[in-house]
Write a structure and sequence with these properties.
Elements: H1 6-15, H2 17-40, H3 45-63, H4 69-89, H5 91-102, H6 118-133, E1 137-141, H7 148-151, E2 155-160, H8 163-169, E3 180-184, E4 187-193, H9 209-220, E5 224-228, E6 235-239, E7 242-244, H10 249-267
Parallel strand pairs: 1-3
Antiparallel strand pairs: 1-5, 2-4, 3-4, 5-6, 6-7
Length: 271
């Protein structure tokens, strides 16, 4: 009985260079499939992909039945159109993939040591007080992907960030409280901004329009969004198409610093 060992496997690869090519080929295919899975996990694309695969299996099964010449001819006509429709169907996911590819260098910043950001402290303090008062809020942090098109939909402020300013903006009696606030380079760039709404299904009915807007902006950019629920007072964070719920003060502070510190520190010399 032959027992597998890494030594014999490496020895076989060294004897046949073609095996190295085959191994690299398998690893590349595995990496592409795994990356695609991570990209669409938790999005509406999962259901679309299931339906697409199910339809393809049915078509292949029917095409293999002898005598269905007309059906096979019809499939041969329709198949090129279906292949061309894939980039259209998965356009949001492909856009996220290209943006993440352009941000690969930013992942190295997480190796640096964090420091306390006054903006994060101000947002954390404001979020806690807004939560206690049951005032809804949506605070979006711009990172590497520019949010100018969304800033233009709101009221330009370019103000220094403070808890009192955020409490005033999200007071129910002000006209600015319904939109989102966008942070850019440690300053409050604009308020009452309109965010894109996510089409993904939300797991909890208590998550409303603000959560959908936070999820939407995190799907089309690398922004980090802080959401305060008006109904429950819970604080959540949206990033990369996912919502992290029920944030206590210390956890909120840690997550915001993890997401934002390295980007802010690296941007200071440029701005």
């Amino acid at each position: 009985m032959n027992v597998f060992s890494w030594e014999s496997f490496i020895s076989a690869l060294n004897r046949s260079p073609a095996l190295w090519i085959s191994a690299i080929d398998i690893l590349l295919v595995t990496a592409v499939i795994y990356s695609a899975f991570l990209l669409i996990r938790g999005t509406r694309a999962v259901q679309v992909l299931r339906g697409f695969v199910g339809l393809a299996l049915i078509v292949l099964l029917l095409s293999s039945i002898p005598g269905l010449t007309a059906f096979r001819q019809l499939v041969s006509w329709i198949l090129p159109t279906l292949l061309l429709s894939i980039p259209i169907i998965f356009q949001p996911e492909l856009r996220r993939a290209l943006e993440q590819l352009g941000r690969t260098g930013s992942y190295l910043r997480f190796l640096r040591k964090n420091e306390v950001s006054p903006v994060v402290v101000a947002v954390k303090d404001a979020s806690i007080r807004l939560s206690q008062r049951r005032h809804g809020a949506l605070i979006v942090f711009e990172r590497d992907t520019g949010l100018q098109e969304y800033i233009d939909t709101g009221i330009l402020l370019d103000a220094e960030v403070s808890p009192d300013l955020l409490l005033t903006i999200f007071n129910k009696n002000t006209e600015l409280h319904d939109g989102a606030v966008i942070m850019r380079n440690d300053r409050l760039a604009a308020a009452a901004c309109v965010m894109p709404l996510s089409t993904s299904s939300l797991s909890d009915r208590q998550m409303g329009l603000r959560h959908r807007a936070a999820l939407g902006i995190s799907e089309v950019s690398d922004a980090v969004a802080v959401v305060v629920s008006e109904e429950t007072g819970q604080v959540s964070i949206a990033h990369n198409g996912r919502v992290i719920r029920r944030q206590d003060p210390s956890r909120l502070d840690d997550i915001l610093h993890a997401f934002l510190h390295n980007r802010q520190s690296s941007k200071r010399p440029e701005t």
